[in-house]
Amino acid sequence: MKQVLAALTLLCVGAGALAADPPTEGPRLSGRVMKVLDGDTFSFSSSARERFVVRFNAIDTPEQLQRGGAEATRALRELLRARPVSVVCYKRDERERRICRVFNARGDVGLQMVEAGAAWHFRRFESEQTPAERAAYRAAEDRARTARLGLWATPNPMPPWDCRERLRNMQRCE
């Protein structure tokens, strides 16, 4: 019986790992940030002189008119300021922004935003992360919440996806 349970566990874990694998990644492009547009979006120019708008994978930050929006933009600007940046893009969204993993000299910038309490781990898209990335982002958000960093300094901050829904319904965000 123990062997059957062990075999079933291995099969389930293996199937889960296959289902959770992120999409194929594109090449890593190095370049510079032209302009930070908000807390999770910026324009990028690669060393190949290609220019495009980058949207972070797996994070979401407060909207500009929302409490914490300006702070998230400042936090991203600081993380990307005067540093070499590289991106690994793997798809485009409905606005033709490239969805990318973003790296500076310290590592994963999205994770750094979550650690600082400047962003939510956008779990709606966590299937596009590796299992290790998902675990790191979840743990970082938990630590930021516990330490009441950034957007977690106020109780129950409104997630940006809720704010966007309210805006579509002509309601205010907090």
From TrEMBL:
Keywords: Endonuclease, Hydrolase, Nuclease, Signal. PROSITE patterns: TNASE_3. It comes from the Bacteria. Residues 27-154 form the TNase-like domain. Coiled coil: none annotated. Residues 1-19 form the signal peptide. This is Thermonuclease family protein. It comes from Piscinibacterium candidicorallinum.
